[in-house]
Amino acid sequence: MDTSGSMDKKLLAKALGSIASYSLARDVYAARVIFCDAAAYDQGFMKPEDILESVKVKGRGGTILQPGIDLLQGTEDFPKSGPILIITDGYCDKLNVKRDHAYIIPKGQHLPFVPKGPVFRMD
Q1: Residue 32 near residue 89, CB atoms below 8 Å
Q2: CA 80, CA 102: separation in Å to the nearest integer?
Q3: How many domains does one find in the chain?
Q4: Is there a domain that residue 4 lies in?
Q5: pTM for this one?
């Protein structure tokens, strides 16, 4: 999840809500949450209910999301077949994602590259 300075509080709340609601709808017991601005901040596996409560967001600096992707793709405790959901405002670097993935971006925004995974929009 993009936690750079360009992501305002309302957008951050919607992003966290998207993670929690998707997890609840798909009976996902816990989602691995990574906050990322210019560095990756691993929050570990979080239950959807915990994501809906007060979460302290880390970051708020520049936007370089690749470290968060690399962390998930290289860690031993994240399933090798686990998909990655990337939530950003679109002001990000080109990403190299080697597994199934999708994006959630605000309505009206675009990614600065041609995405290989599906793109979903949030109001």
Answers
A1: no
A2: 16
A3: 1
A4: no
A5: 0.92
CA–CA distance, 32 with 122 (Å, rounded to integer)? 21
Which structural domain range is residue 55 located in?
A: 9-122
Tens digit of pLDDT for each residue in 47-73?
Answer: 999 998 878 898 888 889 999 999 999
Q: Which residues of 18-53 are buried (b: 16+ CB within 10 A; e: fewer)?
A: bbbebbeeeeeeebbbbbbbeebbbbeebebeebbe
Residue 2 lies in a domain: no
Helix, strand, coil percentages (3-state) for the chain, rounded to 5, are 25, 25, 50
- Cα gap 123→65, rounded to integer Å: 22
In a domain, 112, yes or no: yes
3-state secondary structure of 17: helix
- Residue 3, domain member (yes or no): no
As a whole number of angstroms, the distance between CA 116 and CA 96 comes to 10
